[in-house]
TrEMBL record, chain A:
InterPro entries: Beta-grasp_dom_sf, MOCS2A, Mopterin_synth/thiamin_S_b, ThiS/MoaD-like. Keywords: Nucleotide-binding. It comes from Lunatimonas lonarensis. The keyword Translocase does not apply. This is Molybdopterin synthase sulfur carrier subunit.
Automatic annotation (TrEMBL), chain B:
This is Molybdopterin synthase catalytic subunit. PANTHER family: MOLYBDOPTERIN SYNTHASE RELATED (PTHR23404). It comes from the Bacteria. SUPFAM superfamilies: Molybdopterin synthase subunit MoaE. Its EC number is 2.8.1.12. InterPro entries: MoaE_sf (IPR036563), Mopterin_biosynth_MoaE (IPR003448). The lineage of its organism: Bacteria, Pseudomonadati, Bacteroidota, Cytophagia, Cytophagales. The keyword Iron does not apply. It comes from Lunatimonas lonarensis.
Amino acid sequence: MKIKLFGIAREIVGSAELILPLDPPPKNVKDFKRWLCESYPEFSELRSLAIAVDHEYADDDVILPPNAEIALIPPVSGG
Amino acid sequence: MIKLVDRIDLNEAYQALQHPEAGGISIFVGSVRNHAHGKGVHRLDFEGYEPMALKEMEAIAERAQDRWPIKQLVMVHALGQMAIGDPVVVVGTATAHRDAAFESCKFLIDELKKTVPIWKKEYFDDQTVWVNAHP
């Protein structure tokens, strides 16, 4: 499963894409966020961390579909 | 007109807001400020998750159109490197009367700042900062 990274999330991981090494992969958004914060503690320091599944914000209980486009959305600052 | 661009064209935005039934056009332009947290900013970089940013902008526009009788609507955000004074975002609405134009225009920029996946990096003398990233 490949995860797209932007802004500070890209800098924390050091790459524009993260390949999830987990087998089995996290069952939902909440699980995935827990894994992220354990693997990269700097994520815990952010104001917020959202996950997008196929270009939409996904709640904690959303299951990560294997073929979906998944992205990390750190705190936005457009405008 | 909803799009992401390299450079904001304010004339184009104004033209897109023309409508024969509109008695009022409200436009907000956000630009690059030369300071933040009491320190000088040299330039800004904007990065976007483009397909999702457009989708969010469309969703905000739809909510605005449900709330106000909008004749024309514009949301344009620039991505890439910006210098001091450059326009980085323009939102606007055209409506029959001014109250709806002011209110809906404010709604567009307020909501854009909350949910649209675009990130701003500020370049100071001694460091760079992703705006809003930390509490």
